[in-house]
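Model it.
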Amino acid sequence: MLIGITAKTTKTIVSSAIPVVGKILGDAVDTVLGCGIILKNAIGLVGIILILGICIMPILKLATLTVTYKLLATVVQPIADEKIVGLLEQIGDIFKIFLAILSSISVMLIIGTALVIKISNSGMMYR
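Modeled.
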């Protein structure tokens, strides 16, 4: 809200301080502020895509490890001891829990970033 009030005050001061071209300069200030909002939103979108790109690799690695250990436990079951098969299944379950934790934290990080971008837009609504 403070940013919007400051922008409106700046536009009014510029418009009224200079007699002939004040209105044009005030509109130019308004245009520059609007372009700043568009640029900030674009950078925020790139940031969200970058966070998604960073988070996807560990998620894929954990998913691969989970499937690998579960498949290994299935393949080894006829020829190995039950304790070894149980151990491999438990390791697969642990990787599944890690995968769930990492996925939920990644989603929360993306939602948090999107909320910060949205909150910073609400101040410019008052211009």
